[in-house]
Structures are given as structure tokens and as C-alpha cells.
Specification:
The structure holds 2 protein chains of 2 kinds. The longest helix of chain A has 55 residues. By secondary structure, chain A is of the alpha/beta class. Chain A contains 17 helices and 13 strands. Chain A has 2 domains: 217 residues, no CATH class; 220 residues, Rossmann fold. Chain A starts with 21 loop residues before the first helix and ends with a helix. In chain A, helix 14 links the parallel strand 10 and strand 11. Helix content of chain B is 50%, strand content 14%. The longest helix of chain B is centred in the N-terminal third of the chain and has 28 residues. By secondary structure, chain B is an alpha/beta fold. In chain B, helix 9 runs antiparallel to helix 12 and helix 13 packs across helix 14. Chain B is elongated and about 100 Å long. Classes of the chains: A alpha/beta, B alpha/beta. At the A-B interface, helix 6, helix 8, strand 1, strand 2 and strand 3 of A face helix 7, strand 1, strand 2, helix 10 and helix 11 of B.
């Protein structure tokens, strides 16, 4: 029995290792903000969201599989939350029943508790089947259709009857029957629990020699009772193990159901938040990694910024079909970093099977997403900073491969422009030749202009929009690099009062 | 020449009664001085059950007995032979453990089962040994005698019947299976009737939930060899369900109490004498040290050894990964006494011990440290070592030393070996010279084979019987020790000169350093 809501034919691996350098990615794209919104205070949902986004999909079909399941969830959120609660009840309830079970307990104790847990699970499985029977008609996705029909088929009334019969037998109200052979030193060995035959003529009609003998252990004979319990334990050891493992298997099913539904619950949570703000979301169109590089968006915005500020934020349009280098220049605080993050987030959300923060979004799936952001550090350690940047880039180069996406934000600005540009140029050129898509936010005119002058068909140059009066719109529009980043504007604004005063003199 | 058709007497002695005599032996007085007590302790570690020490306390009386052992050892140095014997020893050890276990148990059917296991182990051990030895190329009279004995023994009615009975008993016990029904404090024991395995049924029902590896909930039960009274009660009832099998178990145990053959039992013990020594010397050999079978003679005049060493010290050094220094010596013609002089801690005492050990080990019929050795088969090895004693009893100490040497010289013969180490140091040089000379004259008179460690240089050139040996030093670095003891005239100044040069205090250096 499998949930298979995250992959068509595989379990979702909550324990999967995150890809290398994902700590940087998480920090640079502020992914924590998004995951917190998905988690809505539940650490478990946070973990699921994190794992799903960091270990994304690349095949459009697998992404589509999740998009379809998510569409069902958006259509019937109450039913899905109900299923999730059922799975949570199972997992939490088991923890309570098993509280205090230590590994060295006796088979009797293990068996007793396992029967209790199985009894509890049986009730929940019945509920689950009821939901499946009732809701099957409202769900369209391949994932839910499969899950519901599996539940109906596997959890039949006959099957529940079979389980009940075992649970009753396992309480051993008629005692235990154990077979054995003579082992070393004539000690009993090879203890196997036997299903007792119905008591019949054999007990009533002793023919010929006797074939059974009985004795009683005195109740006050503590050592004797202990010996009996030990014997009982040897006999029921295997069945206790089988029962406990069965309970564990059913528990894993509920856990898996909880985990996989948990991802969609997270999506529902963040969906509620964003639509509550009046922000648009859409299902993106993923292209296979083998396709021409593409990035086409309408109204693309930074979901994290929206979630963080609780207000609507500016969306951007971009048409970058066939471009593997997108270089973004322009005004300080003009929305460059926000734009870069919105692209990275949309890429990751798309590859996780989620909706994205845009009106329309289309991109080729990427094998890996990496970030190289300028780190705020003590300004006095200039040379140390370049070292740090180079070392971090070297770490990326160790891990990055053709088909990846690299987002650079003010990389190599920690040294003088000529040096920084030359370093960045050589790295960028090599990455492009290796089939890596690069989005580069930079002040380095020498760098940006150098690429611009080459008239590369595969490069796109964007600029933070600045109106004639110096006002920022936070919009990113196509435009060639300019030799200044308009620090003067900022200066003007910040020092406006002082400047006014000196002008007045 | 011993009669080749004489029946096998044992692996240690080819004469009747040799082993019984050895049983009475006590540790020879030379053992502590020669550190042979330490070496023997290490050798017999883990072999306590064999009581080997008396054999090491019993020197052999004649070269024929020594040859008997040399030949056996040469066979045992052949790895397949050693392995065959070792495997036999392992099995016999197991057999004793099984008997021991039987003795510890309280319930008859348990004791009897363990007893049968012991017999079974014995039968297999004896058969494997016989078959193993028959396949090997053996050259010693000892192993030939043993093989002949064993071949007759395993063909005997007694042994073949023992094997057959044991196997039948096992077959019968294996057919016994039974069911126990426990409800509350009531236990019912019955014959097993092919009821289905219930654990498998449960597993089948829940199989559809299988999700990959899960935790193992099997409780591990410690299996003690002894049963409790409930198990014993059950076993009694099982016996009543299978009366024939258990009646035979009772009979078997009674019938076969004396299954163990005395000659085989002795071989198992005595062969450990050789294995203990070979095992002890193996790491030394691996470290590049050599052992040889010495030529021994009762009245030998030519005495020598090459690349020899102190067995106990070498063993310690090898286990510490430290290098071992070897030494040579040779006595020709009238020479009978090695007089060893030289600096402290230069290896003199070690050399003296080595000399004593070589002769004692040779008298046990064992290989000795060295590339080659020609040795006397001594009637006794005497040692006279300085005893640690309080300075206040100085008079008593000298007296004690003289008393001891007197007793030795009273008993010693021309076939004895004497090791004297730093005797008479507790008196003046004049006294020491005098006493040493006097004792030495007596030693020469008796014709003793002797090594004499002393600080009195003059003793080294006392007569044509003495040979001077000197512990060598490194001239440039007197603090360093070579532990080489070389044949050359005694020269007490060599060390002093070297140490003076090192500190720039030679005549020449002091003249140069003192500016004019």
C-alpha cells in the first residue's frame, strides 16, 4: 500500500540529502519565509516543504503529476485537510500507545502493545476507506484516483474481518501452543508458535498410549512462573515480531500519507496567504531541461517579499527565450535583487510541482540551482572578502554541472572593478560554454558592458527602471548597461536636507 | 639402540616410566637466575590444563633421549603435522569442556547429553588425528609409534562400537519433536502434530502494508546450558512420550563411562610440551632470530654457539619491537671457562644467562637459540648470582655467597655447567681477586664448563682453561651499548678512555683546552 501522491511510482523521500550548497541557496533566496508560510507553525510541514523544494523534479510529466494533484487539493481543500488529519491522528496516536516501550521488553509486552496499535489502526483504516468511497467522484488527478481506488480494493470488508480474527487470536485466550525439538544439552530449541487445531475427538478419546501429559506450576513458585513466561516468550517471539512489524508497516503507510499530503497542505496554506493578499498565482509551464533555454513571465513577483511585507509587490514581465545569460544592471535599490529572487523562487516552486508567484510563467527545468551572492561582511577585511568569494565560487564549481542555473548577485564586487570584472568574466564565459544558465546582477559596468559589446544572441540585458526624475519604479526592463548605477540618486535622497541647506546658502 | 618394535611409550620419553618420573620433578634452582622461570611462565600461558611445567623441570639423561625429541620436533616443524596435532588438541579441549559442563548440570538427561557430546568429540578427534597422521610424511620414531598405535585403536571393536552407538543415539534424539501448550500456569506436553506456523499466517495478512526495512522486534534470549525446573519437567514428559529414545540415552551413558584411552590422553597432554615451545619461539623466528638443533654430547670438549641470545630477554624485546643482539662463543682444546669483563649494562649478565639457558634447553631435547651449537649434555646447570641484599648485612652476604659456591662445588662434576655472575662484589678488589682466583682454581680443577662474569680483569688470564670475553663499547659514544660480547683480552681502560674523549677530558684534549 503506497500513497504515491508525490511521484507516480515512488515514495517521497523525506530523508533525502539536500543537494550540495543548498544552505546558501536557502539563505540567498530567503526560502525560509516561503516554508514558514507553508508550514503555518507546523515544523513537520516545514520539513516537507523544504525537502520538496530543494530536491525538485526536472521532467515536465512528473511536475504535471503534482500540479494535477494540487489542482484537486485547491478544488476540495476541506476533504484533503480531513485526510491529512486522519494520517496525523494515526501517527500521533501510535506514539502515545507505544510510549514507554523499550527494546528489551519481552515478546509478551511487545505483542500486547502491537495488538493494541493494530486495533487502533484498523479503525482509522476503516475511516480512510469511507472517505475514499465518498470522495472518489470529486477528484480528477491520476494521483488521487489511484489512491482512492487502491484503498477501496485493498481495504475490503473481508480483509477487515481477517484482521479482526487475528487480533482476537493474538490475545491467546486459549493459551499458546509451541512446537520444539531437542537441541544442545537436550534443551528445547526451534520454538515455533502453532495455530492450535480445534479441540475435538482427540481430547475425549485417548486411544492406546497417552500422547499428552500435563502439569501445573504452583502460583507461588515465582521462578517457575518466570520460566513459563520465558518459554512463552520464546514461542511468541516471532509472532510478536511479525505483529510489531506489521504495525510498523501500517504506521509507515500513515506516515507516508501524512508526508505526501503534508506537501499539498503546505501549498494550500501559502495559496491562502497569497490570494488573501490579492496576489496572483498560476501553474507554470515547465519545459524539459533538454529544451532551448527559456524564461517567459508575466507579472512575476517575489513571493517571499509579499509574504514578508504582507502587501502586494511589483511584478515584472520578462521574455528571455533562447537566452542563457541574463545580465541585470541599473539603479541601486531598483528591484534587481528582488527580481533575481523572484526568478529563483519561481524556478524552484515550479520544479517542486507548485504554482508560482506570477500571472504566467514558463521556463526550462534546471538540474540544479545555485546562488553566489555578495555577503555582508566587515568592510575592513577587503582582501579576506575576495578570498571568501573565490572560495565560495570554487565550491560551486565543484558541484555545478551542465543544465544548472546560477544566480549571481553582485559577485566579485569586493575588489576593484577591473579585477572583479575580469574574474567574473572568465568564470561566466566558461559556465556559459558549459551549458549553464547565468543570471547576473551587477554594478560592474566593465563586466556587463563587455558582454553587451559582443552582441551575443544568447544574452539578454535588463535594467532597473529609473524615471527621468530619478524615481524608481522597481520594475526591471530591457536595457543596455549604463556606466553608473545612480548612487548619486540615493545620495541625493538621503542627503536631501543637507544639500538643500547648502544650496540655500 | 632402542628396539624399533618396542610399543609406543609416549611422545616425550622413549623409555617406560619416563613420564611418571617427570611428574615428581621440581623447579631446578637455576631457573630464577637464568630467567627460565619467566620464559616458562610465558610459554605455558593458556596451557594450564596440561600441567606442563614438570616436563620442563626434567632434563634428559642421554643423547638418545635428546635425539628422540629432536626427531619429533622436526616432524612438528612441518606445518601440516603441527596443524593436525593442533586440531586434535583443540577437539580434546572441547571434549573436556563438554565433560566439565556435564558435571555442572543438575538434570540427568542434560548430563547424559553433554556426556554423549564429549564422546562424539573424542571419536571425531581421534579419527581425524589418525587419518591426518597417516597421510603425512613422518620421520620420527615417536610419531611412527603413535600412528601405529592409533591405527590399531580405531580399528578395535571398542572404538568402532563407541562410534556406532553415539551416531545412533544422535539419530534417535533428532527424531524427537513435541508441542507445549501453556495456559496460565498449566502446561501440556504432547507429540507435535504438524500444526501450521502461526507467525507466518500473521505476516501474510499484513504483507500488503510492507514498506521496506523496519525495526526488528525480536527479543534475544540468552541460552544458558542449564535448564530450569520447568524445562526439566517438560523434558521428563517428553521422555515419557519417547520412552525408547531416553532409555537408550541412560544406557549409553552408563556403558561408556571409561571411553577415554590412556595412551591418547597422555599424548594429548605431552605433545603440548613441544607445541608450547614452538609457539613461544615462532615470533622470534619471524623477527629473524635463528634456532638450531644442537649437537649434544655427554663429555663434549668442543663447545660453541653462533648467533645465540637470551631467550627470555629476546622474547621481551621482540614483543616491544626492539632489536635483539646475538653473540658467539667457542671453547676449544683445554678451554673450559669464559671470563666476561667490561662496562656495566654492557650485556655481560645476558651473555652469562644465555650460556646457561643453552645448556639447559639442550638437555630438554629442544632447539636452542643460535645458528649452530655444540653443547655439553650437562648432568646439572648450577648458577651463582649475586643476591640483592641490604648493605648492613655485608658480612652475611659474602658469607652466604661463599657458602653457596661451596655447596655447588661439592656436588658439581666434570659434566656440570656453572654460571657465575658478579660474585664477591661485596668486598674489596683485593678480596675479590683473591676469592675469585681461589674459586676459579677449583673450577678448573673439577673441569667444570663455566662462564664467569667479573670486574676482576686478572681472572681472565688465569690459565689455559680461561678465555677472555669483553662486552664491547662504541668508542665515540660510550653511553651507547652494543651488547656484543667479544673474545679479546680484558682491558678495563677502554671504556674510561672513550667516556673521557666524549667529554673532551682525554690527556690530549685537556692539554689543548687549557690555553697556554
Amino acid at each position: 500500500m503506497k500513497a504515491f501522491l508525490m511521484h507516480e511510482r515512488a515514495d517521497f523521500d523525506l530523508e533525502a540529502d539536500p543537494p550540495p550548497l543548498s544552505a546558501d541557496l536557502t539563505q540567498d533566496l530567503e526560502l525560509g519565509t516561503l516554508w514558514n508560510a507553508m508550514a503555518a507553525g507546523d515544523q513537520f510541514l516545514f520539513d516537507v516543504a523544504q525537502r520538496a523544494m530543494l530536491n525538485g523534479l526536472t521532467e515536465p510529466d512528473s511536475i504535471g503529476y503534482r500540479q494535477a494533484v494540487l489542482s484537486d487539493c485547491l478544488a476540495s481543500p476541506a476533504a484533503v485537510r480531513g485526510l491529512y488529519d486522519l494520517a496525523v491522528t494515526a501517527v500521533e496516536g501510535e506514539r502515545k500507545v507505544f510510549y514507554g516501550l523499550f527494546f528489551r521488553d519481552s515478546p509478551e509486552v511487545i505483542l500486547h502493545r502491537s495488538v493494541e496499535v493494530l486495533q487502533f489502526f484498523t479503525g482509522l483504516l476503516k475511516n480512510l476507506r469511507t472517505v475514499a468511497d465518498e470522495q472518489a467522484g470529486n477528484f480528477r488527478s491520476a494521483g488521487f484516483t489511484r489512491l482512492f481506488s487502491m484503498l477501496s480494493a485493498e481495504l475490503s470488508d473481508e480483509y477487515f474481518a481477517e484482521i479482526e480474527a487475528h487480533l482476537s487470536t493474538l490475545r491467546f485466550r486459549r493459551g499458546v501452543q509451541i512446537s520444539a525439538r531437542l537441541g544442545s544439552g537436550n534443551l528445547g530449541t526451534g520454538y515455533v508458535l502453532r495455530q492450535p487445531r480445534e479441540q475435538g475427538w482427540r481430547d475425549r478419546l485417548p486411544l492406546g498410549g497417552r500422547d499428552s501429559y500435563s502439569f501445573l506450576v504452583a502460583e507461588r513458585d515465582e521462578a517457575g512462573m518466570r520460566a513459563l513466561s520465558n518459554l512463552n516468550g520464546r514461542g511468541t517471539n516471532l509472532v510478536a515480531n511479525a505483529t510489531a512489524q506489521s504495525a510498523d508497516h501500517i504506521l509507515s503507510f500513515f506516515r507516508m500519507l501524512r508526508t505526501e499530503l503534508g506537501f499539498y497542505i503546505g501549498c494550500l496554506n501559502v495559496h491562502d496567504r497569497l490570494t488573501g493578499l490579492g496576489e496572483p498565482v498560476c501553474f507554470p509551464v515547465p519545459l524539459p531541461p533538454s529544451a532551448e533555454p527559456d524564461l517567459a513571465a508575466h507579472g512575476l513577483y517575489d513571493a517571499c517579499l509579499a509574504l514578508h511585507t504582507g502587501t502586494t509587490v511589483v511584478g515584472n514581465d520578462v521574455q528571455a527565450g533562447g537566452r542563457s545569460l541574463i545580465m541585470i544592471t541599473g539603479a541601486n535599490q531598483g528591484g534587481k535583487s528582488t527580481f533575481l529572487r523572484s526568478v529563483g523562487l519561481a524556478q524552484l516552486m515550479m520544479q517542486a510541482g507548485m504554482f508560482v508567484a506570477a500571472r504566467e510563467f514558463q521556463a526550462d527545468a534546471r538540474d540544479g540551482v545555485f546562488t553566489h551572492y555578495k555577503r555582508e561582511e566587515d568592510a575592513s577585511m577587503r582582501s579576506g572578502k575576495l578570498d571568501e568569494e573565490l572560495s565560495r565560487m570554487s565550491g560551486i564549481i565543484d558541484q555545478i554541472a551542465a543544465g544548472s542555473l546560477l544566480l549571481c548577485n553582485e559577485s566579485f564586487a569586493s575588489t576593484n572593478e577591473r579585477e572583479g570584472a575580469e574574474i567574473a568574466r572568465q568564470i561566466t564565459r566558461a559556465l556559459l560554454d558549459r551549458g549553464i544558465k547565468v543570471l547576473y546582477v551587477t554594478h560592474l559596468f566593465d563586466l556587463a558592458n563587455g558582454f553587451y559589446q559582443q552582441n551575443m544572441a544568447t544574452a539578454l540585458f535588463l535594467r532597473a527602471e529609473r524615471q527621468a526624475d530619478g524615481q524608481r519604479t522597481f520594475r526591471i526592463v530591457p536595457g543596455e548597461p549604463l556606466p553608473t548605477s545612480h548612487g548619486e540618486d540615493v545620495y541625493q535622497r538621503i542627503f536631501a536636507a543637507d544639500l538643500d541647506r547648502s544650496a540655500a546658502r | 639402540m632402542p628396539d624399533p618394535d618396542r610399543p609406543f611409550q609416549g611422545i616425550l620419553f622413549d623409555q617406560p616410566g619416563g613420564a611418571a618420573q617427570a611428574e615428581q620433578s621440581h623447579q631446578p634452582s637455576c631457573f630464577p637466575d637464568l630467567n627460565l622461570d619467566q620464559a616458562l611462565d610465558w610459554m605455558t600461558t593458556g596451557r594450564g590444563e596440561y600441567q606442563l611445567k614438570p616436563f620442563f623441570y626434567t632434563p634428559l639423561p642421554d643423547p638418545g633421549a635428546v635425539k628422540y625429541r629432536h626427531d619429533i620436533l622436526r616432524d612438528l616443524e612441518n606445518e601440516p603435522t603441527r596443524q593436525t596435532v593442533q586440531e586434535f588438541a583443540t577437539q580434546m579441549h572441547r571434549m573436556r569442556k563438554q565433560l566439565e559442563q556435564a558435571g555442572k548440570l543438575h538434570y540427568r538427561y542434560q548430563q547424559e547429553r553433554w556426556f554423549a557430546d564429549a564422546v562424539d568429540t573424542y571419536c571425531q578427534a581421534v579419527r581425524a588425528l589418525t587419518e591426518g597422521l597417516s597421510r603425512l610424511e613422518l620421520s620420527s620414531r615417536g610419531f611412527h609409534g603413535l600412528t601405529t598405535y592409533l591405527t590399531r585403536y580405531i580399528a578395535s571393536d571398542a572404538f568402532t562400537s563407541l562410534v556406532a552407538q553415539t551416531q545412533q543415539l544422535y539419530r534417535d534424539l533428532a527424531t524427537v519433536s513435541y508441542s507445549i501448550h501453556i495456559k496460565g500456569n498449566r502446561v501440556r506436553v504432547s507429540k507435535y502434530e504438524d500444526e501450521p506456523d502461526y507467525s507466518a499466517e500473521v505476516e501474510k495478512t499484513f504483507a500488503k502494508f510492507k514498506q521496506g526495512a523496519v525495526k526488528d522486534y525480536l527479543v534475544s534470549f540468552r541460552d544458558w546450558p542449564d535448564m530450569n525446573h520447568v524445562e526439566a519437567r517438560i523434558l521428563d514428559l517428553v521422555a515419557r512420550l519417547h520412552p525408547d529414545v531416553f532409555a537408550e540415552l541412560d544406557d549409553y551413558a552408563t556403558r561408556n563411562q571409561d571411553y577415554l584411552d590412556a595412551v591418547i590422553r597422555s599424548f594429548d597432554r605431552e605433545v603440548q610440551f613441544y607445541l608450547a615451545y614452538l609457539e613461544f619461539t615462532a615470533p622470534l623466528k619471524r623477527a629473524g632470530l635463528q634456532f638450531c638443533y644442537p649437537q649434544v654430547s655427554a663429555g663434549g670438549r668442543e663447545i660453541s654457539a653462533d648467533a645465540s641470545f637470551d631467550l627470555a630477554l629476546a622474547s621481551k624485546l621482540i614483543s616491544d619491537n626492539a632489536p635483539v643482539v646475538t653473540n658467539d662463543f667457542a671453547l676449544r682444546g683445554a678451554e673450559r671457562i669464559l671470563v666476561v669483563t667490561g662496562p656495566n649494562n654492557g650485556g655481560k649478565t645476558t651473555f652469562a644467562r644465555m650460556f646457561g639457558q643453552l645448556h639447559y634447553l639442550a638437555s630438554l631435547g629442544l632447539p636452542v637459540p643460535g645458528q649452530q651449537a655444540q653443547l655439553l649434555l650437562p648432568d646439572e646447570v648450577y648458577t651463582h648470582f649475586e643476591r640483592e641484599e641490604d648493605i648492613t648485612t655485608l658480612h652475611g652476604k659474602l658469607e652466604d655467597e661463599l657458602t653457596r659456591i661451596h655447596q655447588i662445588l661439592e656436588k658439581a662434576t666434570g659434566h656440570s655447567v656453572l654460571v657465575m655472575n658478579e660474585s664477591f662484589t661485596s668486598t674489596t678488589l683485593n678480596d675479590a681477586q683473591y676469592l675469585g682466583t681461589e674459586v676459579m682454581r677449583r673450577v678448573i680443577g673439577l673441569g667444570l664448563l663455566c662462564v664467569y662474569v667479573t670486574f676482576v680483569d686478572e681472572l681472565a688470564s688465569l690459565s689455559e682453561a680461561t678465555v677472555s670475553m669483553v662486552a664491547a663499547i662504541v668508542p665515540d659514544n660510550p653511553a651507547e651499548r652494543t651488547f656484543k660480547v667479544e673474545r679479546r683480552p680484558a682491558d678495563g681502560l677502554a671504556y674510561a678512555a672513550a667516556i673521557a674523549a666524549k667529554y673532551g677530558l682525554t690527556y690530549q684534549r685537556v692539554k689543548e683546552r687549557v690555553s697556554s
